């Protein structure tokens, strides 16, 4: 079961912890090194950070450690596994992009893609929602 666990952990309510503080905190809890063993992506618009582990670890156990950690609790942050999804949002697309191009691009195994079932373009936002046939094609 843990082989199928997501390599990504979502941290919510991160506003009380600076990006550098968050990275150090995750290094302290995991015993790993940012950049070499995991990456942290901040999504300030929704007050969230996502840690993605390059090194294979038991992310379920890591989430458990985080939820019991004194500093995580002091910052009132929560940690949970990033759930699998069948859709992704692509942003900052060129104005001339077509649904056919996006379909072929995201179906490329070289790009980590897989079979695409739907592409919705939002030209006014220069974005698109790409939906895969299964959640494995969106890494």
TrEMBL record:
Taxonomic superkingdom: Eukaryota
Residues in PARP14 second RRM domain copies: 5-83
Alphabetical list of Pfam families matching this protein: RRM_PARP14_2, RRM_PARP14_3
Gene3D superfamilies given in the database record: 3.30.70.330
Protein name: PAR14 polymerase
């Amino acid at each position: 079961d843990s082989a199928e666990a997501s390599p990504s952990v979502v941290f919510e309510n991160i506003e009380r912890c600076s990006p550098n503080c968050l990275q150090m905190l995750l290094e302290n809890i995991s015993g790993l090194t940012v950049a070499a063993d995991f990456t942290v992506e901040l999504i300030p618009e929704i007050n969230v950070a996502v840690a993605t582990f390059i090194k294979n670890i038991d992310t379920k156990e890591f989430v458990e450690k985080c939820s019991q950690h004194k500093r995580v609790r002091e910052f009132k942050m929560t940690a949970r596994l990033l759930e699998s999804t069948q859709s992704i949002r692509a942003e900052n697309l060129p104005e001339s992009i077509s649904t056919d191009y996006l379909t072929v691009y995201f179906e490329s195994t070289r790009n980590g893609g897989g079979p695409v079932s739907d592409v919705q373009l939002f030209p006014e936002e220069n974005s698109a929602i790409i939906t895969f046939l299964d959640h494995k094609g969106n890494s």
